[in-house]
Amino acid sequence: MAISTSIWIWIAALLTLSIYSFLYKDNPFYKFSEKILVGISIGYTVSIYFHNTIIAKVWNPLVHDHNFLVIVPLILGLLMFSRLFKGKAYLSRIPIAFVVGTGCGMSIPSSFENLFKQVQGTMPQVFTIGNIIILIGVLSTLIYFFFSVEHKGIIGKVTRVGITFIMIGFGAAFGATIMARISLFIGRIQFLLGDWLGIIS
Amino acid sequence: MKKMLITLFLFLITMSVVFAETDNTLIPVIADSSDLIIDEFNYCGIESIEVKDAPNDDGTALLIRWEKIKDVEEFDGTYSLYRINVETGKERRIKELITNETEYTDQGLYRNIAYKYYIVAVNNDFQISTVRVYTEEITTTPNWFKKDKIILLLMIIVYILMIVLLVHTVRKGKKLFLRRLAGIDALDEAVGRATEMGKPILYIPGISTMSDIATIASLNILGPVAKKVAEYESRIIVPNRDPIVMTVAKEIVKEAFTEAGKPDAYDDNDVFFLTDSQFGYAAAVNGIMVREKPATNLLLGMFYAESLLLAEMGNTIGAIQIAGTDAVTQLPFFITSCDYTLIGEELYAASAYLSNEPVLMGSIKAQDYMKAIIICFMILFLTVFLTNGIINLFTDADIGFFDGIMNVIRFVFNT
Fold first, then answer.
1. B9 in any annotated domain
2. Whether A4 contacts chain B with CB within 8 A
3. Contact call for B371 and A146, based on CB within 8 A
4. Residue range of the domain that includes A161
5. Hey, which residues 190-229 in chain B have their CB within 8 Å of chain A?
6. Rounded CA separation B262/B251 (Å)
7. What is the ipTM of this complex?
8. Which residue in A32, B334, B390, B407 has its CB near the most CB atoms, within 10 A?
9. CA B252 – CA A149 distance, rounded (Å)
């Protein structure tokens, strides 16, 4: 394999190295690639929102399908711009209240449903050591998150068991995520040594 | 409160029994006896097949059940379930059945269209039996209510009532006890440290949207923190990933500075939007950390894969870091690289504790009581489970009473 002759591969490789240069210290190369990343991502997002929201969900339904119901969310969206006018900035609270209210309202039943599923999943059918550990672990962890009592006496002992279970869980999650990150790093190194420099096939 | 919990417990048990689902009687369609001739290629092995409308759905599913002939020799082939659209006459194989299956829910159907089903046997040479056992025609029916979620609805009603009651209690002036959290106690120290060092405080409200509960909790904490910053005449920097979160954060910080009597100290440019991109945001915040060198980093809200990048950078610059999130997968990173971590629900409790809002205090208390109910049920379940298990280990006695209790508890949490 030979060194890449593609200009895009070279740009990607040099930007990768610029980001990695931050491991040494903050430098102009990192600042340059950071600004490119932020700038491009904003430009890309604006373009995506314009095509997927303004055109697809406002312009087309309004102009082509004559669906005038979209005027309601359109007005709510436009109210966000009221922040640009000092005296009328309070109007932007209306769409925010709508978003927060809808989000909270929708999450209540689903949160309860998830909670119930978790509780039911903790109630095993078969009597095994593993199932007993699960029950004790969930119970002690739940008591750890009980804020109405101090962690003293018997409650303190139970919560210590609970926090031990939590930390074991976190340890496992930590290990699994680190493995995933290492595989991402390997992917980048493969790109640099393979696609760019052609050292490995 | 004890009386309330006992009443609630009895109420739930009663409701469990009242709403216990009885299986709807099916109308079996027995196959014509002439169809049941068993020979080498003409094998079916299905005695009856029946179809009914799937309960508690939006009218897009049907439930098909079948029974096998008990006295025929073992069939080692497979079965295929076919659907017929009665209007168009089109047939479609919808499922390859493994031999021990006895029911299947066909989803994604159209309302007001009649369907019919049949099963055929397929032997190991992929020959399809000519014998077919049909169901009767049926159309789907949508249901107004999901009856199987009635307990869920009752629990939500009970929970909301508890919140209303507790908010009312707090508003009347009664103090509700919430235990102190180490992370909250450290907040004062962290803000004071930043002031002493003459460095800013970096507040990262997570990267999620306003509809995320963790973001709302984070913004509830932002208010008291910003007020403290204003009182100490320090500086707070709030970079945002979501434009709506940024708008709310601006309002909160501005209001906090006004409440502290320092409206002129508020700088609108310190609460700003960075980018929508997850890693673009992480790169930019890391840059801010290195250049502004904040004395304190507060990472509170919803975080994803960028959590370690942010927390590790904060650790490198020597900032005191207080983190809090309900993202279970990111908590290990905060625990390892931050000085204090608010784990899961502690974030919500912190927002109630710091803001001292009656609604938040009431809801945290109600959450606690809800947890108490679940803990009671689980302790009861664990006790019965252990007793039943130990008895079964040493004796052959089959105690149905214990199974009954466990099934009732399972049913209460059945969604």
1. no
2. no
3. yes
4. 122-201
5. 209-213, 216
6. 15
7. 0.85
8. B334
9. 31
